[in-house]
Design brief:
Layout (H helix, E strand, L loop, with lengths): L6 E4 L3 H10 L3 E4 L5 H6 L7 E4 L9 E4 L2 E5 L4 H6 L1 H6 L1 H7 L5 H6 L2 H7 L5 H8 L3 E6 L2 E6 H4 E3 L2 E2 L6 E8 L5 E7 L9 E7 L5 E6 L6 E5 L6 H9 L8 H23 L2
Bound molecules: flavin-adenine dinucleotide.
Length: 270
């Protein structure tokens, strides 16, 4: 399939991009195009104008300042896997990013594109919820910051307004406690059937953040993990509105949480 006709605007700066979003008819940003182009090819998305931000190099940086790791929205997924600062400060993010599609997709797809697209089975939105990240959103109306936990509203739905652009992601570092990650997919490179991040703090408490099992990231807190950890994951999953094949998804949810928990424990014992 070919996309419906559209106008093309190549943004030269963030200001130019947000002005184009606010003024050009039915405008939509395009970054790596790895989610938007397939949707346009199937005519499930028919924007009248594409605002291309893929050339804004200054949005592909990684910096550490005052205990905050700042990631530019245009960082390709492969950079998340390889960047030395990311691997040192939030190794769980580098590990999870390796599970996104295949190398060709990871070199074009961007952090901001994945976070804004909000596929419920995507690794990165849940990572940001698990890591207490904040998103910086720009528009002609100004700049605002939103916690990742408040950004995801449901299936492919976020707090991002039509005229807003996600410019950077801020992750507090070092993360509190240790993190483990696990996912199940049919084949390497496929979207996950279920995945989880588990955080374990020094006091034994922590959090689990699931993805792939419902309309968006699902984070739950715990005070301690009993010997029968699976019972805890089952209990925390009880109020999750699981997408389909209820018993199977819940079973996978317990499995991935258990694996992620064991990996977090392994990190803690290093
Ligand atoms: C075969 C295949 C397998 C894949 N497997 C996985 C997988 O396993 N896990 C996974 O997570 N993803 C997977 N993906 C999706 C991939 O990660 C995409 O790169 C990502 O979801 C979107 O990033 P993008 O830069 O390509 O965004 P685009 O496709 O350019 O845009 C996606 C959406 O985000 C908006 N957008 C883009 N950038 C911004 C911004 N800075 N601010 C606001 N809005 C913005 C666009 O307007 C659009 O609505 C796969 C894709 C393919 C084609």
């Amino acid at each position: 399939m070919k996309p419906a006709p559209f106008q093309y605007h190549r943004a030269v700066s963030v200001d130019d991009a947000v002005t184009a979003l606010a003024t050009l008819p039915d405008a939509k940003l395009i970054a790596g195009g790895q989610s938007l182009i397939p949707l346009m090819n199937f005519r499930m998305s028919r924007p009248q104008t594409l605002v291309d931000i893929s050339h804004l190099d200054n949005l592909a940086s990684v910096t550490l300042s005052d205990g905050v790791l700042v990631l530019g929205a245009l960082l390709p997924h492969q950079r998340l896997c390889e960047d030395a600062l990311i691997r040192e400060q939030v190794p769980v993010l580098a590990e999870a990013a390796q599970h996104i599609g295949h190398w060709a997709i990871r070199t074009r797809g961007t952090l901001g594109g994945s976070l804004a697209h909000a596929d419920p089975a995507a690794e990165l939105p849940a990572a940001m919820v698990a890591l207490d990240a904040e998103f910086v959103l720009r528009s002609v109306r100004g700049t605002r910051t939103v916690a990742a936990r408040d950004f995801y509203l449901g299936f492919l739905t976020t707090d991002l307004a039509a005229d807003e652009m996600l410019t950077e992601v801020r992750i507090p570092v070092p993360p509190q406690g240790w993190y483990g990650f696990a996912e199940v997919a049919r084949r390497a490179g496929d979207f996950a059937l279920a995945g989880a991040y588990v955080q374990v703090r020094d006091d034994g408490g922590g959090s689990v953040t699931w993805f792939g099992i419902s309309g968006g990231p699902e984070r739950r807190e715990f005070e301690s993990v009993p010997e029968d950890a699976a019972a805890l994951w089952r209990e925390l999953l009880a109020d999750v509105d699981v997408t389909d094949d209820d018993d199977y998804r819940r079973h996978l949810g317990v499995l991935v949480a258990d694996w992620a928990y064991r990996r977090a424990q392994g990190e803690a014992q290093r």
